[in-house]
Specification:
Largest sheet: 5 strands, antiparallel
Low-confidence stretches: 1-23, 140-147
Mean pLDDT: 80
Strand order of the largest sheet: 5-2-4-3-7
Distance between the termini: 73 Å
Strand content: 15-25%
Radius of gyration: 17 Å
Number of strands: 7
Number of helices: 3
Length: about 150
């Protein structure tokens, strides 16, 4: 019976496109009420196979959610500005993520839900084998010096 259930689960998982939720739905990650999210919330998702490694090497970890495919770290809003997140990472504004029943797997001891985005960015780059890039993905921005 267990073998049959596992084959159905794995078959359904293989038939989905990566990053897609059956029916195309999005879920907003629910923060614990006791935590203050005064900076707004975005989320950074990485493939589940990197989850434990990232969590064990980060100096401080905020709220982390997980489902079968991805682990999602809560970061302050705007943590994508001037950071070129690796292609394997998914950045979700407002913490609206394509996930199937994500659950809270880590809650910080402090009253803030955030994982610091720069150490997370550097660790995601390291585990995915990508050289960190501080330039925005859309190309270089030019600031005019004219008045």
């Amino acid at each position: 019976m267990l073998k049959n259930a596992m084959s159905h689960l794995l078959g359904a998982r293989r038939s989905r496109e990566p990053g897609c939720v059956p029916g195309g739905g999005m879920v907003q990650l629910p923060l614990p009420a006791a935590l203050s999210a005064s900076l707004g919330c975005d989320a950074v998702g990485v493939p589940a196979r990197y989850g434990f490694r990232l969590m064990s090497h980060l100096p401080r970890t905020g709220c982390v959610f997980a489902d079968a495919d991805r682990w999602w770290w809560i970061v302050p809003s705007g943590s994508d500005l001037d950071l070129d997140w690796p292609a394997q990472a998914a950045y979700a504004r407002g913490a609206h993520v394509p996930a199937v029943r994500p659950r809270l797997i880590h809650q910080p001891d402090s009253r803030t839900p955030y994982t610091p985005p720069i150490p997370l960015f550097l660790m995601v780059c390291q585990v995915t084998g990508v050289t960190p890039s501080w330039a925005p993905a859309g190309g270089a921005r030019v600031v005019s010096s004219a008045p």
